[in-house]
Amino acid sequence: MARSRRATAPPSGSPPAGVGLTPTPSLASATLPRVWQGLGYRPLPEATAARALFDFAAVPWPTPDMIAFTWGAFTGTDRLVGALAAESDERSMMFHGPVIVTEDEPLEVAAQLVAAALDHTAALGAETVFTRPLGLDRVWVRFGFIPVPESTLPRRLAGRPGAGLYAWRGGTALWTLREPARS
After folding, report:
1. Model's pTM, two decimal places?
2. Domains in the chain: how many in total?
């Protein structure tokens, strides 16, 4: 009987080409308009353009002076049918929404807004993104968000209305609740 040989461990050092973290997109490329299934996705020049959707869906509007950006989903006639707003506090963000008012694949519209907002967030250099699930657990989990305790929120993002809290760190599920050492 022949003996099987155990595979040798790969040499230590840098990972092979094509393996590892994806490069951070530039802000210019992260904020380019996108199209998916006939809807256009783009940053909103004025955050308040999304306010009516949030009010209609009874979703709390973020603190105006902390809004970092908003993304919108538009029909071919430029009707706003979805929006997501992001608040910023140093290296953390808090997503509000997405709020969707279309019957055609609303979860996919929400997912496209989340994908665009995550690219935008990464380009801005944020390390952690928080959100309230709003019944969109499937969307958040799909992008690597995990449930976290309220105590993980930075002080300036704490106290927002809603139940439950999810967070994302660069698309990885490797988490520590310990704060990094500050120099």
Report:
1. 0.79
2. 1
